[in-house]
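Example S7 (structure tokens).
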């Protein structure tokens, strides 16, 4: 599956409607973003069961602001609608492959438990 363009209109549906979603936040003027693009595209072809989305931060400024994107490229990974990874900077192919494998192998029961504990802790403050 090739990468898909993510906008304000389809972001939530994409994240909640798919098991694993990787998002590349980028801009056309960003050199590291352009260097990372072929790596991201290659990973999308090797992992057709995962949705690989690209968010143009220039075109989707409100979306980038709401996601608190402060530097690009930024890679985010969602599993079962939960943000499980977020890191700025262009990753080499081997590192991106490691992220993909780690997200695939997550124990989501444990992740949901940690999220619930974190939310309970925040509610007490």
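Recovered sequence:
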């Amino acid at each position: 599956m090739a990468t898909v363009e993510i906008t304000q209109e389809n972001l939530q549906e994409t994240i909640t409607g798919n098991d694993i979603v990787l998002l590349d936040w980028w801009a056309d003027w960003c050199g590291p973003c352009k260097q990372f693009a072929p790596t991201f595209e290659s990973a999308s072809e090797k992992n057709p069961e995962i949705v690989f989305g690209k968010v143009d931060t220039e075109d989707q400024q409100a979306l980038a602001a709401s996601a608190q994107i402060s530097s690009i490229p930024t890679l985010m990974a969602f599993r079962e609608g939960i943000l499980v990874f977020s890191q700025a900077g262009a990753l080499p192919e081997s590192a991106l492959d490691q992220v993909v494998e780690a997200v695939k192998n997550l124990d989501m029961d444990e992740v949901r438990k940690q999220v619930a504990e974190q939310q309970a802790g925040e509610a007490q403050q």
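Notes on this example. The mean pLDDT is 94.
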